Amino acid sequence: MDTSGKATSIKLFSLAKPHMRVFHMTWFAFFLCFFGWFGIAPLMAVVREDLMLTKAQIGNTIIASVAITVLVRLLIGPLCDKFGPRKTYSALLVLGSLPVMSIGFADSYESFLLFRLGIGAIGASFVITQYHTSVMFAPNVVGTANATTAGWGNLGGGVTQIVMPLIFAGMMMLGANEAMGWRLAMVVPGVVLLLTGIAYYFLTQDAPGGNYDELRAAGLMPEARNENGAGRSFLSAARDYRVWALFVVYAACFGVELTINNIAAIYYFDNFKLDLKTAGLIAGLFGLMNLFARTLGGMFSDLFARRAGLKGRVYLLFVVLMAEGLALVLFSQMAVLWMAIASMIVFSLFVQMSEGATFGLVPFMNRKALGAVAGIVGAGGNAGAVAAGFLFKTEALTYQQGLLYLGFAVMLASLCALLVRFPAQVLESENAALQAALAARKPAAAAAPDSVPASA
């Protein structure tokens, strides 16, 4: 660990407090949030028939599931600064479990839309995940830590595409009909979210030195960090144009991922005439790339930082985001199933590497308003998903056309990465912090062979 108590290595097979306990709890909690958030997506073909939804109405529910998250992500970051990530995450998980379990009561388009709107709030969990790992890990590995916890959390978006149809089939085997089966299936992720929220409160702590309230009471954490309130923290971040550049960048990567999570199963179901389980399995491959792809983005961000400082992180982000746009255009033109799957996997690789590279930069934007920065940038992902949602709700465009236009928009958005620049004094101080973290890691690395290399 460095002098601030942050971990300078990632010991994947450890559950020791506080660093690795937080590492594993954050990705697992985010994984479950994704599972609950998109649990209904692979069942939409059944829901469509049960509630007699039109394409426009399905599009509206997709928009609703990500729109509310924009607002909640903007709010949740400053709340982390004020109350600490432990309490904030626990509250979000417990409250978020309620609409997930309750969506089964929907009996019309309007009520289904309302429940999807409520479920979307748990998408703010991403901000807390990134905040908590940013607090726990040093500059030499923070990109890798952020990318891995977020990537393994995003993996829930792929796993749910595969697992939820199986849970639905299990409900059918127990005697439920289709209309009741999808309703009962959603209770499963809701219950697990509730239990995880309780566990998060008791098993984690806010920072390496303890919880925020304890640190402030002991005088070990300045009250000035919180004395101006959440509003001042947000304004400090909102005045920085670079934060909004990353807002657009994240809209073009995470926003695209959210969109694909919502439409992939029904896209393959309709366009390639597949059954629900097969369509869900193929759609799940997109999210399963999170097992390693987002981590690659963070690891390369750390590697480029060792070679070229913060500028290296910026250039990497531009390259992988431009590659994402090109790969999406290619995917949109595939009419043969195996070619569509192959191009989707390549596209998924660059989407998630872009996400990891984005949050390889976030911890260095404004350390005094880290929660607010993470909240604004994270909200960009959902804003992008809302904007993309309008492409897929109109009857005038096919899904293929929507994907094509989205690919061009991503390539344009990649230019925003080049707007992120840092003053010379910041470059110097961050490079000094990086070198100190690397120096502190050397003796620890020899004694900890299960650690993830900082430059891997």
Automatic annotation (TrEMBL):
<feature type="transmembrane region" description="Helical">
    <location>
        <begin position="184"/>
        <end position="203"/>
    </location>
</feature>
<keyword id="KW-0812">Transmembrane</keyword>
<feature type="transmembrane region" description="Helical">
    <location>
        <begin position="369"/>
        <end position="391"/>
    </location>
</feature>
<feature type="transmembrane region" description="Helical">
    <location>
        <begin position="281"/>
        <end position="300"/>
    </location>
</feature>
<dbReference type="InterPro" id="IPR036259">
    <property type="entry name" value="MFS_trans_sf"/>
</dbReference>
<feature type="transmembrane region" description="Helical">
    <location>
        <begin position="243"/>
        <end position="269"/>
    </location>
</feature>
<dbReference type="GO" id="GO:0015112">
    <property type="term" value="F:nitrate transmembrane transporter activity"/>
</dbReference>
<feature type="transmembrane region" description="Helical">
    <location>
        <begin position="88"/>
        <end position="106"/>
    </location>
</feature>
<feature type="transmembrane region" description="Helical">
    <location>
        <begin position="58"/>
        <end position="76"/>
    </location>
</feature>
<dbReference type="GO" id="GO:0042128">
    <property type="term" value="P:nitrate assimilation"/>
</dbReference>
<protein>
    <submittedName>
        <fullName>NNP family nitrate/nitrite transporter-like MFS transporter</fullName>
    </submittedName>
</protein>
<dbReference type="InterPro" id="IPR020846">
    <property type="entry name" value="MFS_dom"/>
</dbReference>
<feature type="transmembrane region" description="Helical">
    <location>
        <begin position="27"/>
        <end position="46"/>
    </location>
</feature>
<feature type="transmembrane region" description="Helical">
    <location>
        <begin position="113"/>
        <end position="132"/>
    </location>
</feature>
<feature type="transmembrane region" description="Helical">
    <location>
        <begin position="312"/>
        <end position="331"/>
    </location>
</feature>
<feature type="transmembrane region" description="Helical">
    <location>
        <begin position="403"/>
        <end position="424"/>
    </location>
</feature>
<keyword id="KW-0472">Membrane</keyword>
<keyword id="KW-0534">Nitrate assimilation</keyword>
<dbReference type="InterPro" id="IPR011701">
    <property type="entry name" value="MFS"/>
</dbReference>
<comment type="similarity">
    <text>Belongs to the major facilitator superfamily. Nitrate/nitrite porter (TC 2.A.1.8) family.</text>
</comment>
<dbReference type="InterPro" id="IPR044772">
    <property type="entry name" value="NO3_transporter"/>
</dbReference>
<feature type="transmembrane region" description="Helical">
    <location>
        <begin position="336"/>
        <end position="354"/>
    </location>
</feature>
<dbReference type="GO" id="GO:0016020">
    <property type="term" value="C:membrane"/>
</dbReference>
<keyword id="KW-1133">Transmembrane helix</keyword>
<feature type="transmembrane region" description="Helical">
    <location>
        <begin position="152"/>
        <end position="172"/>
    </location>
</feature>
<dbReference type="Pfam" id="PF07690">
    <property type="entry name" value="MFS_1"/>
</dbReference>
<feature type="domain" description="Major facilitator superfamily (MFS) profile">
    <location>
        <begin position="22"/>
        <end position="425"/>
    </location>
</feature>
